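Fig. S4 source data, part A: sequence.
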Amino acid sequence: MSIAAALFALQIVHLAWLTLDPLWLKVTGDALITVDKPWSWPLLLVDYTEVPALLTVSLVYLNDLRKDGFAWKPALFLLLLNSQWLHIFWITDEFVVESSAARATVLPVWLAYVALVIDYAEIPVIIDTFRKVAATLRERRTSD
């Protein structure tokens, strides 16, 4: 779980970039930051560290559902978490950047907003993952 939390912490870098570049550009007409190649490659790698985090944390919530029975919180977090696959494999960040820069795209521009909502939807899951790690660490300290 600690590894998943560390991988999710990297996603905060990705979410900051989404906010400061394509989203800010779309809203105001001028990006606050622009990440050009070769500096965009580390950002791309950070984005794909999300895959092991998605798998690991999904297993945690599935285990919660298995162990405790149905509950809305783990079910909702599984939905929010696994909507990321749609964004990773279909509505990519490249599409979001292209549409926010008003370049012609094959897909409708409103899908860029769907992609952004999907990306930001993982924030509650990231926070909950950090909380679970903190609770586990507190539990270990008190049991020692």
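Fig. S4 source data, part B ends here. DSSP finds eight helices and no strands in the chain.
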